[in-house]
Write a structure and sequence with these properties.
Length: 295
C-alpha cells in the first residue's frame, strides 16, 4: 500500500566520482526507487544505495559497450537499456564523454506501477534490452527525468511520483515495442526464450517448476531446456531461481517483512528451503544480506 505521508529527506550523494546527482524515493529506511545522472566512467554506487531489481538507462551522449549474458550490447546516443539485476555484465567500456541517466526500482514498485505490457512486448525487451529513442521522444524523456528529480528531492507523495514514473516507462516501452519490426525479427529460438523469460517474470512466485512453464508454451521441458542452453547459455530452472532471488533481495532490502513472510510470499514450502536457496546463490543467509543493506 502506498504511504500517504511525504518521504523523509534523502541526503545527496556527493562523494561518488562521475555522478552529477543522485536522489532516491524512500520507504522508512529503504530506498525503493533511485534516479541518477552519471557523467563519464563513474564508479558504481554501493549496494546500500542500489535497488536490487530492475533499472532503466538512457544514454544522452557518448557510448557504452559490453556483454550482457554473453550478448554484445553497444549503446549509442539516445539509446535506452533495460537491465535486470542478475544479468551478467562483462567487458563494459564507458566513454569518458558519456552522459546518461539511470532509474532503478524494486519489484514492489514494479507491482505498484501496474503497467500492462503484453507478453510479446516483454519478450522482445528481455531478448533485446537496448533500443533507440526517436528524436521527438528525447525531450519528453528529459522532461520526465527533470520532473522526477524535483518531486523526489521535494519529498512529494509516492502516488504523484509513481504516476510520472509510469508515464516515463510507458513512453519507453512503446518505443521498444516498435523497434523489433523496424530493425530485426526474432528467431524461433529467441521467441521461445523471450516468451519463457516473460512468463517467469510474471509467475515465478506462484510456479517454481519448469514443467508448468513448458506446458503453458506447449513444449516439452527437455526441448525448452535445450533451447535456453543453446541461446542464452542457461537452464530454465536457473532462471526461475534467479528471478526468485532477485525478488527476495528486493523484499529484504525494501520492506520490513519477516524472513518467514518473504518465504511465504515467494511461494516456498518453508523458510528453510528459501534460506538454503538464498545462501547457495548469494553466499549469505537472508538475515545477513538484510543487515548489509540496511546498516
Amino acid at each position: 500500500m502506498l504511504h500517504s505521508n511525504p518521504f523523509p529527506e534523502v541526503p545527496q550523494l556527493v562523494d561518488f566520482n562521475g555522478f552529477a546527482w543522485h536522489c532516491a524515493l524512500k520507504r522508512g529506511p529503504y530506498e525503493v526507487l533511485t534516479l541518477s545522472k552519471i557523467e563519464g566512467n563513474a564508479q558504481p554506487l554501493p549496494d546500500t544505495y542500489m535497488p536490487p531489481s530492475y533499472a532503466l538507462e538512457f544514454l544522452l551522449r557518448g557510448t557504452i559497450t559490453g556483454r550482457v549474458n554473453n550478448r554484445l550490447v553497444e549503446l549509442q546516443p539516445n539509446d535506452a537499456f533495460f537491465c535486470v539485476a542478475d544479468h551478467i555484465h562483462q567487458d563494459v567500456i564507458v566513454s569518458p564523454d558519456a552522459e546518461y541517466y539511470v532509474m532503478g526500482f524494486t519489484t514492489q514498485i514494479a507491482e505498484e506501477l501496474n503497467i500492462h505490457i503484453s507478453q510479446s512486448q516483454l519478450a522482445q525487451i528481455l531478448m533485446h534490452p537496448s533500443w533507440h529513442i526517436s528524436e521527438t521522444l528525447v525531450p519528453i524523456i528529459l522532461q520526465h527525468i527533470t520532473l522526477l528529480r524535483m518531486m523526489i528531492e521535494e519529498n512529494q507523495h509516492a502516488t504523484a511520483v509513481l504516476n510520472v514514473v509510469r508515464s516515463l516507462i510507458l513512453c519507453l516501452a512503446q518505443e521498444a515495442a516498435l523497434q523489433p519490426q523496424q530493425t530485426y525479427t526474432l528467431t524461433r529460438a529467441e521467441q521461445i526464450c523471450g516468451h519463457y523469460l516473460s512468463l517467469v517474470e510474471t509467475h515465478c512466485r506462484e510456479h517454481h517448476r519448469v514443467e508448468w512453464y513448458a506446458s503453458q508454451m506447449h513444449l516439452s521441458a527437455k526441448y525448452l531446456s535445450n533451447v535456453l542452453k543453446q541461446t542464452l547459455n542457461t537452464s530454465p530452472n536457473a532462471y526461475i531461481q534467479q528471478a526468485l532471488i532477485r525478488q527476495a533481495k528486493s523484499l529484504l532490502s525494501s520492506t520490513s517483512l519477516s524472513i518467514q513472510q518473504i518465504a511465504d510470499r515467494l511461494g516456498f514450502q518453508n523458510q528453510s528451503h528459501f534460506g538454503t536457496l538464498f545462501k547457495r546463490t548469494t553466499r549469505l543467509n537472508p538475515s545477513t544480506f538484510r543487515s548489509t543493506i540496511t546498516c
